[in-house]
Amino acid sequence: MNMQNRITDVFRNQFGSQPLLFRSPGRVNIIGEHTDYNEGFVLPAAIDKYIYIAIAPRTDKEIHLYSQDFREGCVFSLDNALSPVAAGWPNYILGVVDQLQKKGCPLSGFNLVIDGDVPIGAGLSSSAAVECATAFALNHLFSLQLDRMEMVKLAQQAEHTFAGVRCGIMDQFASMFGKKGHAIKLDCRSLEYEYVPLDLKGYKIVLLNTNVKHNLASTEYNTRREQCEQGVAWVKEHHPEVKSLRDITLSMLEQLVLPKDELIYRRCKFIVEENLRLQLACEDLNRGDLIALGSKMFRTHEGLSKEYEVSCKELDFLVDAVKNNPAVPGARMMGGGFGGCTINLVREDAIEGLVDNLRHSYEDQTGLKLTYYIADIEDGSGLA
Ligand code: GAF
Predict the structure, then answer these.
(1) Is residue 161 annotated as involved in ligand binding?
(2) Mind telling me the catalytic residues?
(3) Considering only CA atoms, which of 148, 205, 196 is closest in space to residue 175?
(4) What percent of the chain has pLDDT over 70?
(5) C or N terminus of the chain, fewer CB within 10 Å?
(6) Which part of the chain is the GHMP kinase C-terminal domain (predicted)?
(7) Taking 70 as the threshold, does the pLDDT of residue 110 lie above it?
(8) With 80 as the cut, is the pLDDT of residue 324 above it?
(9) What is the pLDDT of residues 210-267, one digit of tens each?
């Protein structure tokens, strides 16, 4: 049974009526990690894994939610102020409702079922996909006339306020603005963007899931953000025109941050280099030079692991294991870090063999199962 039929059945069983269906995709990021909240560039793309929402209006002010994954439902009222709840999954929906209320959008009650095939905690942005699908569905249901950019921004705010993660804008942007066959080169300062054709000529994007659940809210993500802000503050004392790491050069860091704190210097240096690397990687992609692009991905991984320190031994193991494989021009950890997936460029005819080999060595080494997905690049949020 396809996802549309499944979620419709669940909705009918729960609420006894016919719903409208919406979906928002997860994302990959080719290169440009932890650069979004530093006003830098990112290069994400929406993938063929989705969060689905089935929804119908109610005649009262109640919100009835049901999660197919958790086989669990809950009820809230729009007459009471919403706040985060202990059971994590409703927060991504409630956070969006709360943002819409704060914007003064006229909402009334609704029944909602959530389902999907974006693996949770795998670094593929299931949370952003829930937020975007919720925003998209409510926008449609209540004719709120919000454009995609407004929905991206309020979805990001929902993550800040109801999930406690001060995330950048990349994940929500990719989920809302994705385009089939293209990556999005996004300037996270101006929010200008261009679509870059992802012509991988005989190669595929393969995601290897460590099955180590990352927990972005686990202070480390927010700590990285604070460390970057500290570096900027030190440079700003001498260069008041500077607004973010985007405006800072390596020599400024050497002169003004290194003498104060070596750790903060390393964090900032990675971000400055990653931004430069992304620009070059886009040129590689335009020339169709996957070897050059891939070597930059490996370099990004090294930086994320040793300088930014957001990797983990399982991610490092998977990247090391493919490093000298001629069928894999590039690989790296992806997303916030501390678990989740590696993104790999793999020659199509080598995928099965690679995964078979890795499965055994990964399990021997870590005691964890290795799962994998071949990601096709698809459009962003819409009707399902
Ligand atoms: C997470 C965040 F949500 C993004 O905003 C981004 O910072 C990413 O980690 C790291 O590049 O996915």
Answers:
(1) no
(2) 171
(3) 148
(4) 99
(5) N
(6) 283-363
(7) yes
(8) yes
(9) 999 876 556 899 999 999 999 999 999 999 999 999 999 999 999 999 999 999 999 9
The answer on whether 124 is annotated among ligand-binding residues is yes
Q: Can you read off the two tokens belonging to residue 217?
A: 């809210």
Best mutation site among 131, 157, 171 for ligand 1, i.e. most ligand atoms within 8 A of its Cβ?
171
Instruction: Evaluate: CB of 335 within 6 angstroms of ligand 1.
Output: yes
Task: Report the alpha-carbon distance of residue 232 to residue 268 in Å, rounded.
Answer: 8
Q: Is 372 labelled as part of a ligand binding site?
A: no
**ipTM field:** 0.99
Position 217 scores a pLDDT of 53
Q: 28, 31, 34: which to mutate for ligand 1, most atoms within 8 A of CB?
A: 34
For the record, the structure tokens of 122 come out as 């795998």
Which of ligand 1's atoms lies nearest the C-alpha of 170? 5
Contact of 274 with 40, CB cutoff 8 Å:
yes
Q: How far is CA 370 from the centre of its chain?
A: 20
pLDDT (mean) for 115-124: 93
Instruction: State yes or no: pLDDT of 276 exceeds 60.
Output: yes
Centre of ligand 1 to C-alpha 167, Å, is 6
Q: Measured in angstroms, how far is the CA atom of residue 33 from the centroid of ligand 1?
A: 7
pTM as predicted: 0.97
In a 10 Å sphere around its CB, with 0-12 CB exposed, 13-18 middle and 19+ buried, how is residue 139 labelled? buried
Q: Ligand 1: distance of its center to the CA of 251 in Å?
A: 26
Q: What is the CA radius of gyration of the chain?
A: 21
Return the pLDDT at 380: 98
Per-residue model confidence (pLDDT) at position 87: 81
For the sheet with 41-42, list strands across it: 41-42, 182-187, 193-197
Helices 262-287/220-236 angle, 10° precision: 100
| Residue 348 labeled ligand binder | no
Cβ of residue 316 lying under 6 Å from some atom of ligand 1: no
